[in-house]
Amino acid sequence: MPPVTLRDVARHAGVSHQTVSNVLNGHPHVLATTRDRVLAAILALDYHPHQAAKALREARVTTLCCTFCGHDPENIDDPYRNLVQSAFIAEAQGHGYSVTTAFIGEDGDLAPLRQRFLQRQFGGTVLVGTTLTSAQLRTIQGWSLPTVLFDHALPDTVSISADYAAGMAALVQRHVATGRRHLALIIPVADPGSTSVERREAFLQACAQHGVQGRLVDGDWSYASGYRAMQALWAGDHPPDAVLGGNDRMGTGALRAAHDLGLAVPADVGISGFDDFQFAQFTTPALTTVRIPHGDMARHAVRALITVLGGGTPPSRVVPLSLTVRESA
Amino acid sequence: MPPVTLRDVARHAGVSHQTVSNVLNGHPHVLATTRDRVLAAILALDYHPHQAAKALREARVTTLCCTFCGHDPENIDDPYRNLVQSAFIAEAQGHGYSVTTAFIGEDGDLAPLRQRFLQRQFGGTVLVGTTLTSAQLRTIQGWSLPTVLFDHALPDTVSISADYAAGMAALVQRHVATGRRHLALIIPVADPGSTSVERREAFLQACAQHGVQGRLVDGDWSYASGYRAMQALWAGDHPPDAVLGGNDRMGTGALRAAHDLGLAVPADVGISGFDDFQFAQFTTPALTTVRIPHGDMARHAVRALITVLGGGTPPSRVVPLSLTVRESA
DNA sequence: CTGAAAGCGCTAACAG
DNA sequence: CTGTTAGCGCTTTCAG
């Protein structure tokens, strides 16, 4: 049997197909009795409006794109995307939008995203991730694609970010308070992505303020890079007495390297992460870290994007971060 | 400026709009010179076909749904979804399909999924997850929604699964070979989801074959449940000498509990996982586990779904699993 | 307050 | 090989 259309409903209810449309879209001037008859027919026939037809006629698209930027999609081996995306989808559905997901790589091929937008596969996007270059961003803005930035905070954009500087300051404070005097931060050192920059600068500044040594070691957010960074540090002449992973994965890699180096944590060296994913509670020792409320941020981002689509300009937002002290530092 | 349509291209190229359509859809009978002119116009005007219009006319939808079943979406704190979904999206895009993501909870509210399907928001779905009930599945099949099962293997369905029985047998074999005689498997004990059943039964059978004791302890796939299960085991009278986590998270939770219990791993007790996510390499000690090729499975599932959409009946598939021996067992 | 007409952008069917 | 005609399912005019 062919799918039921609006005209079928109209016929069943004994009204014109227009009236059905009016009922569906909550137009004011419909007799209550007529409306009830139409509603009954809709239920009876199990009618569902055809999205594509509606979108075509209304020249508007009710799909939002959640775009993850800059990383090898298969290599984000932590729950970051899970958390961001599930909150994103739940929030979007609550507002009547559906969600599609896209990836843009570090190589920066934006063509597929552009094409999908121009084909009207989605109406706007949240750009998620720490490694979107400003050149890429400018390109995207040139398409007049409604955009909200997630985990970036750049001028002249709508963005949802976290107070990485404050989080990092709290962490440095904690290490200093537990007697550390020589800290090392594992972080992508050449990465211009704004959260890296923010963490690096806040780290160096906090170290300076406390009058302790602070140095940067390269990492690429992976467990393995945290492990390697730790080894490199101890292969050098003046190993630090505290190592800060730029995220929980690198912190965990460093933890494991400390074990292999015969170092006791936190006795010999303090180690911390950044994210507070569940696994940070189950490492040995459990990871001291900074909690990032990814889900809340994602929900904010969706609401902001919907506002942008409606022609508004929502305020950018910076959520506060809190330190979670466990065993490792 | 209004978006450029097919008629604009036609005008620019000096042909009828139909000819443009023919060129776009690769219809055979178009003069090469005409085609080139049309192609040039498309490029010049930066034309992109309107998806919704195309879908409406062709009565076919080029969106696939990736449905995750049965878990609290925000609580899958491992990279399972990352891995499945990124491979899924990459494969789908390679075939010209876009992807939308849905969740269905354990409470079993299928209405939103059904509504989205009836509104033609997607053409078919892969059902991902271990806790879809067969009642839910039958309901979904009743909608004549083209469906492929992922991580299930039920009769009369197209499914992509893994050889969990063989993987579990290899793991038990390994524990027995390292001298263990009393094994415990942490797994949702009452879960009727087929991969749980498969793992449980294969475990019990392998233990029987080797003539060793095998028992089941309840867990819910989370780190915390692995931790609790381990504690419960050692609170009892006859603790085992090997503990098998039903997944890597529960294995990791058990590892941490062993540490807190003052147990040396693997000297006092062997511990293993199941998945082989990256973090299994960085626990202390590193987790012996069974590698599941989630990405490959996801790619198979997409191809199978596209075949189903085309009216075919692809064969179900069971991928082989391999043991990864590390330090913990 | 309800019905008839028009058309969103596209493609299938036919005629030229 | 190319152009014309029709209509997918819906909503926005505008008369009745």
Automatic annotation (TrEMBL), chains A, B:
One of its GO terms (molecular function) is DNA binding. InterPro entries: HTH_LacI, LacI/GalR-like_sensor, Lambda_DNA-bd_dom_sf, Peripla_BP_I. Coiled coil: none annotated. Residues 4-58 form the HTH lacI-type domain. The keyword Transcription applies. This is LacI family DNA-binding transcriptional regulator. Gene3D superfamilies: 3.40.50.2300, lambda repressor-like DNA-binding domains. It holds the Pfam family LacI. PANTHER family: LACI-RELATED TRANSCRIPTIONAL REPRESSOR, LACTOSE OPERON REPRESSOR. SMART domains: HTH_LACI. The lineage of its organism: Bacteria, Thermotogati, Deinococcota, Deinococci, Deinococcales. CDD domains: HTH_LacI, PBP1_LacI_sugar_binding-like. Keywords: DNA-binding, Transcription, Transcription regulation.
